[in-house]
Fold this protein.
Amino acid sequence: MDYCYHHGCSVVVFEDPDTIKTRRYTKNATANRKITRWTKREASQMFILKALRYGLKPFFANPAYTSKLVELIAKDLSLDKHTTSAYILALEYLGLRPKEAYQNLQKP
């Protein structure tokens, strides 16, 4: 949040906590412990309060198809997967519907 604040951001986009907690297991044991440490309500409250302290508007985006889009886009743009997924969530916030574009690409 500190980075966003000092770089003039007005909105912070997060993955929707409801979808974060439904993932059963990841490959990373540390991530699994962190995911199960808080309830969905506590996690979303922490995100919202931290954003509001910095004067930022919080927005929760559904991360569905983000990883599939990252695989298609990251190499073409020479970006790592985390930066690419952040851009995809930003496009979702802007209403450009990147997930629908991915689904259209998959149709023959």
Summary: The chain has two domains: 1-61, 63-108.
